[in-house]
Amino acid sequence: MHQLRYFILLFTLLVITKAKAQTDTTVMLKYRAHPKREFRGAWIATVVNIDWPQQGSTVDQQKQQLVNILDQHQRTNLNAVMFQVRPAADAFYGRGREPWSKWLMGKQGQAPAPFYDPLDFAIAEAHKRGIELHAWFNPYRATFDNKYSALSPDHITNKKPEWFFIYGGLKLFNPGIPEVREYIVQVVLDVVDNYDVDGIHMDDYFYPYAIAGQKINDAATYAQYGSNFSDIRDWRRDNVNQLIKMLSDSIHKHKPRVKFGISPFGIWANKSQNPEGSDTRGGDSYYELYADSRKWIKEGWLDYINPQIYWPIGYSLAGFEKLLDWWGLNTYNRHLYIGQAAYRINERKIGAFKYPQQMPDQIKLLRNNPRVQGSVFFSSQSLTDNKLGFTDSLRLNYYKHPALPPVMLWLDSVPPNTPRNLQVAKVPNTNKIQLKWDAPLPAKDNELVYGYVIYRFEGSEKIDISAPDHILHIQYDANPMYVDTTAQRGKTYLYVITAIDRLKNESDRTPTMAVMVQ
């Protein structure tokens, strides 16, 4: 539930329990200590200025804040951010159809001055640091509160009031209206077509989380459009399914190399509700939210699924380890990234999160599952705050070495050719080493090279690029040059490089080039 859980869990579908506080969650198992490929992400939430930008910031301050965030994530060897660009039918980008978000300059519809495009800026700065940027959309939420008079005249709720119902004081798009689905697809395609994003990402807000005593006001829409369904609940699930299928087809048609993923509520269904569900006893997405998240991955509509498993190991009603295993068995050959609750570190409500070992143990568990390709932390601020020293633990141990994102062979299985004519030389009067090379010949699919990976070894070390230990730099641009500023006098270094394409398929390595620093 992302940002709402960040406060006091406004929609309390998270199971509330008096579970016994755990005193030790240490996981004793062997695990992949340093995988070369792993998705390492963080959500950067803009709604209510959770992570960025700070309220009342100038344009220059906003830019510096975002650079600081990305610098820290680069130091921690993260390789992806989910950047929230549409919190409530508004925009953190300029080349679209919805008004500027009020959480940018303080008023909905107000452009940044002096002008800049936050999404363009975020993409460029992320890519400079070898970090993918996935544009994060809230699909159906149109307002975050009931202050409707503060909405821009250009806000879609003022242009098409018949498209919305009110639930919990918020205006929400009615998913049962075909024109609503078409509109949301066009909103997403504005970003796909106009920005160099690596992925499109959606969170768990489809039909609303239940509020006692409230009812979804869509009976008239069901009467108009639901004739093929005898049960309104099945019709609601189909409405969401249609949107996901439309988005998948449209995104991949417009830009085949753009990834599409969703972060659903952590429980699809409980076994007590459905024999194919998980061994849990909590709120669910299938029956309560009308979101058949397992179907989306089973049908191949998603490139990755990123369930929010925001409970600790051993939790009696929804154990992290049980949900991890369940999702691992329900990935259907697509990627599985686990949503981890960094915001709950040091939380006292469920005692396990107060122990520093809880989050590292979760990483051990997910790395021990071969069907899991990584994780995403909610949220960015929780990592930059270094709660209980967890970010230090990532930087010094679990994420000690850089990692490439895992490949998606169903989108692109053709690697680039090998870079040519690598030349390595010491820069006069410095300890710096300059590497130059020629771009590889065109790949079999004629895709252009997207970047390079530079590996460095010392002395007589064996040249082995199957592990990340010797990755010196991951470069998301095609400039055939790199300067190593960390070389030390008196050492001999061996360099090899590889090429990567947009989806991070990697070429064979170049021949080894050696240089002695004197």
Summarize the structure in words.
- The chain is of the alpha/beta class.
- The protein folds into two domains: 3-398, TIM Barrel (Alpha-Beta Barrel); 420-516, Immunoglobulin-like.
- 24% of the residues lie in helices and 17% in strands.
- The chain contains 13 helices and 17 strands.
- It has helices spanning 3-6, 59-75, 102-105, 118-128, 156-159, 178-194, 219-225, 232-254, 293-298, 320-328, 358-367, 380-384, 390-398, and strands at residues 39-44, 80-86, 132-137, 164-167, 170-173, 199-202, 259-262, 304-305, 335-340, 374-377, 420-426, 433-438, 451-458, 471-475, 481-484, 492-500, 513-516.
- The strands form four sheets. It has an eight-stranded parallel beta barrel, surrounded by five helices.
- Helix 9 (293-298) links the parallel strand 7 and strand 8 (304-305).
- Helix 2 (59-75) runs parallel beside helix 4.
- It is globular, with a radius of gyration of 24 Å.
The CATH C-level class name of the largest domain = Alpha Beta
The overall number of domains is 2
CA radius of gyration: 24 Å
CATH topology (fold) name of the largest domain: TIM Barrel
Uncertain segments are 6-24
Secondary structure: helix percent:
10-25%
Name of the CATH homologous superfamily of the largest domain:
Glycosidases
- Numbering strands along the chain, what is their spatial order in the largest sheet? 1-2-3-6-7-8-9-10
